[in-house]
Amino acid sequence: MIVGLGVDLTSLGRVDRLAQRHPQFVDRILTPGEQEQYRQFRGQRAVEYLAGRWSLKESFGKAMGTGIGKTVGFQDVEIVDNQSGAPVVTRSPFTGRVHASVSHTATLVMTEIILESEHEK
């Protein structure tokens, strides 16, 4: 049963500017496992990865109904790419299944998170 749905749209340029102005931004947003993947990318692909993780975590907070803040922080959710490049939620405060989707244009990233409970309400 679907218990939460979150969608986010983020400007790649905005995230890139934040990362360039504030060196601690990457450490604040990405978990160590995500940072390991991020360091493998350069240029536009690195910006897409960072903005994608920002947006996925924003989507996660919306799906939880709390947003990102005191209840769910950026470090509470880890989303890494699998062998095929698909985002997989490997850690979160949600106990059911978490489905993640990310798509990019030249200037935007759009993400969606679906939270699925194993139990009917």
Automatic annotation (TrEMBL):
It is an enzyme of class 2 (transferase). Its EC number is 2.7.8.7. SUPFAM superfamilies: 4'-phosphopantetheinyl transferase. Residues 4-102 form the 4'-phosphopantetheinyl transferase domain. Its cofactor is Mg(2+). The keyword Transmembrane does not apply. It comes from the Bacteria. Transfers the 4'-phosphopantetheine moiety from coenzyme A to a Ser of acyl-carrier-protein. Belongs to the P-Pant transferase superfamily. AcpS family. This is Holo-[acyl-carrier-protein] synthase. It comes from Limosilactobacillus pontis.
